[in-house]
Design goal:
alpha/beta, globular, about 250 residues, seven-stranded mixed beta sheet, Rossmann fold
Length: about 250
């Protein structure tokens, strides 16, 4: 069913009708619906993307409220994919949305990547799943955009885009680079990252209350909704640039 183009008229005025038709035919997979990923799917839905595959294994919790778009009181305890599905359908009922309630890792790759996709967004915040997913996507030759660390930053003017080999100032990107290099991947992954030097005092000594449930030992990091949002919308823009590379002059 064709989209209600009236909803996206102002986007069409900027990008053109051919671009809107391609966006409507495009499928994007977003892995991770937290601080960055929740803003990514919002922007893509409002841009007229035709189909989204959304992947996350977690529930909405109280600690999500300062930075995650899906964190609202009625949603506490609900699966992020379920909340995202409802929100996306309220933006565009005609968009196809496929939910996968799983952690993206070696055992679930075939399930996650079973559906055809034009591009994958990595918004994973755990190091091992992130590295293994990026390696698998490179191995399969799937176009992708990866978000590096948005937490512990306060200066939006220091947010950058570029190949992972070019990243500087981001501890997460440095760890990802080192591990991927040991796996034989030196570059070819487009990233959104920040060059801002982080303060060591912005990490809590206490573990998250629900780390046993989520399977991760993690120390909470200080964060701002504004920076997470800018990361997410920058990632979404990079998705559009790739999809429309031969139609729109950016």
């Amino acid at each position: 069913m064709p989209f209600n183009r009236e909803k996206f008229k102002r986007t069409e005025l900027l990008l053109g009708s051919e671009a809107m038709e391609r966006l409507e035919r495009s499928t994007v997979t977003v892995i991770g619906l937290g601080a960055v990923g929740s803003h990514v799917i919002e922007a893509l839905a409002r841009s007229g993307i035709g189909a989204l595959n959304i992947v996350d294994f977690d529930e909405i919790g109280v600690s999500n409220f300062n930075r995650q778009l899906l964190a609202l009181e009625p949603n506490i305890g609900r699966m992020k994919t379920d909340v995202a599905f409802d929100r996306l359908k309220q933006i565009n009922p005609d968009m196809h949305v496929k939910c996968l309630n799983t952690l993206c890792h070696k055992e679930s790759f075939n399930q996650v990547f079973d559906s055809a996709t034009d591009i994958v967004v990595d918004a994973i915040d755990s190091l091992n799943p992130k590295v293994n997913t990026l390696y698998e996507l490179v191995r399969r030759g799937v176009p992708l955009i990866s978000s590096m660390g948005a937490a512990r930053r306060k200066d939006p003017t220091l947010i950058r885009t570029g190949d992972i080999s070019e990243t500087v100032g981001c501890p997460l990107a440095r760890s990802v680079r080192k591990r991927l290099r040991r796996m034989g991947v030196d570059g070819g992954i487009r990233c959104v990252y920040s060059t801002e030097i982080v303060n060591k005092d912005t990490v809590s000594d206490d573990l998250e209350d629900n780390y046993f449930e989520s399977g991760r030992l993690r120390n909470p990091m200080g964060s701002l909704s504004m920076i997470s949002g800018i990361f997410g919308y920058t990632v979404a823009l990079e998705v559009l640039k790739i999809i429309l590379h031969d139609i729109v002059e950016w």
